[in-house]
Amino acid sequence: MLAAEFAAKLGAKVLTGEPRDNTEIKGIYCGDLLSWVMSHAPKSSAWVTVHTHLNIVAVASISELSCIIIPEGIKVDEATINRAIDENTIIISSELTAYEICSIAHDCGI
Amino acid sequence: MKLHYEIPANDLTYAGEASSSVKKKLVQLGIDPALVKKAAVSMYEAEINAVIHGNGGFADVEVSSDRIIVTITDKGPGIPNIELAMQEGWSTASDEVREMGFGAGMGLPNIKRYTDKLDIDTQIGEGTKVTITVEFNKRL
Fold first, then answer.
1. Predicted local confidence at residue A22, as pLDDT
2. Are the Cβ atoms of B101 and A38 closer than 8 angstroms?
3. Which residues pair with A91 in a beta bridge?
4. Residue A11: CATH number of its domain
5. Could you tell me the fold of the domain covering B2-135?
6. A70-93 tens-digit pLDDT
7. Does B45 touch chain A (CB under 8 A)?
8. I need a labelling partner for A97 at 20 to 30 A (CA). Which of A19, A47, A72, B55 fits?
9. Dihedral sign computed on CA atoms, order B89, B92, B97, B102
């Protein structure tokens, strides 16, 4: 499923604007320890994290994750959004919890 | 191809910029994405270590036809016990750094996992030089 389509399923907002390419989500990975995420998250996963600082963009990019999903309406720093736009990394903001996001992903066949 | 980057001290704002830049260059060179990831993850971990623990320093990257060698040289206090530092979960990071998701004690273990060769040259009171080699004829 495309990241933009999944955002719509979540009723979530894509903070980084319309995705420039057809970025596909092939799995979901939840985690807040950055090194753990880098060493364990499968490529093309959507990454659910409560972190909103600049470094999440580098972690997502280096780990080849399809997008970052910030749960529970946590406010994302403007600088992080701008960095993500520059790096062509998608950030989605959802009001749902990580569990609810994963449940919807499962229902969507992700 | 040779690249050189300065690594700022104690400023996580721009930490990872060198690794991200190198990743883009390796992609542009058409290097296998699996090998690019090995090099980028290893370099990112070493770069973050230099920022958090090493008072900054510099990164040198050399890409040849059969391998990439990344050298991260920091100006930190050195590593008193490398065996301990290589243990997953062991960390001296501050609470502030941990709250950002770093400092899980996985940096050096991750580097070892993702590289074909890891050399650590550390001098107490002078600094640490971490040399990472990723061979292009090997995969994870």
1. 85
2. no
3. A68
4. 3.40.1390.20
5. Heat Shock Protein 90 (3.30.565)
6. 999 999 999 999 999 999 999 999
7. yes
8. A19
9. negative
